[in-house]
Amino acid sequence: MIECLAYGQLFLDTTLITPTSQFDNAIQVKAFPEPGTNNVTVEFENPDKATWITFTDVEGKEVKRLKSSATVEKIDVGSFPAGTYILSVESLTYRPRSFKMVKSQ
After folding, report:
1. Residues 55 and 64 sit within 8 Å (Cβ to Cβ)
2. If we measure between CA atoms, which residue out of 73, 95, 102 comes closest to residue 18?
3. pTM, entire model
4. Which residues 6+ apart lie within 8 Å of 85 measured at CB?
5. How many CA atoms are closer than 13 Å to the CA of 61, on its beta-carbon side?
């Protein structure tokens, strides 16, 4: 099943790019756009002391990277040019997860 969230200029495909099973050691994370803003919210079920959130464009160029230890991060992507991005979440403890994000003008 494909789940997608769209609000204004942001579209986030909540179907994970990275395959997972209920028995793997992947980081438990949800990502979704905020209505009426250029923000993406990333929520962690099991936050790590050092978790990195990275936005990469389709050419593989890193657009934004931040370190987090919070349960919820609100990230402004308003300065991103229109296009498709990969939102990756990784930590030292858990396997990474990735999502596809599309930003329109």
Report:
1. yes
2. 95
3. 0.77
4. 55, 56, 57, 58, 63, 77, 100, 101, 102, 103
5. 7
Q: CATH number of 4-103: 3.40.390.10, 3.40.50.980, 3.40.50.2020, 2.60.40.3080?
A: 2.60.40.3080
Pick from 88, 91, 44, 52: nearest CA to 68 = 52
Model pLDDT for residues 93-102, shown as the tens digit of each residue: 888 888 888 8
Per-position DSSP letters for 53-70, written without gaps between them: EEEEETTS-EEEEEEE-S
Q: What is the rounded distance in angstroms from the CA atom of residue 7 to the CA atom of residue 56?
A: 20
